[in-house]
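Hey,

Quick one before I head out. I ran the complex with FE2/S2 (inorganic) cluster overnight. Inputs first:
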Amino acid sequence: MSVLSAHVLEEIKDLPARYPQPRSAVMPALDLAQEEIGHLTPEAMTEVAAALELDPGYVEGVATFYTLFHLDPIGKHRFYVCTNLSCMLRGAGDIVEHVKQALGVDDPRAISSDGLFSYEEVECLGACEYAPMMRLDHQYFYDLNAGRIDELIAERRSGQVATPRPSPPQRVARVTKPRAPTKKKTDG
Ligand code: FES
């Protein structure tokens, strides 16, 4: 019996036609599979490979290379907090600490006691202008602070926010906006 539903497999089969190189469909296909069952099991990766008519080893290689794919269970809502340079200079460390404290977890492998949340620190997500920022439920959230994190958690705990379906990655619009000067750490 298939681990992925028939409608998700149909969506996956339709993906290659949307790309100049059919292999490019593997990432959105894995995203759909992960969205449906929570993480990528060997069986799910095999079904993705079959639906895309790709070598299972290639699909597994993509799944294991990218940090946005998970081979073990994660929270339904996962905070991917950017801690690369621009975000770190604008407080990403404090954001990570607040997320950990608010969720009651202290490790990317841990899941909150309600089973809803987990987090991890990630490299630059290409939206440095809006630092500190993160990805959550297939959306980017910008100019974060502790209050905004609390709001996002509360919305999801109360069921106000349905998890949006993944879609093929889109470019982030680069908008220039004025910034307050950033304090630099000085040695000594
Ligand atoms: S450093 Fe965080 S988005 Fe680029």
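The chain has two domains: 6-65, 77-158.

Talk tomorrow,
K.
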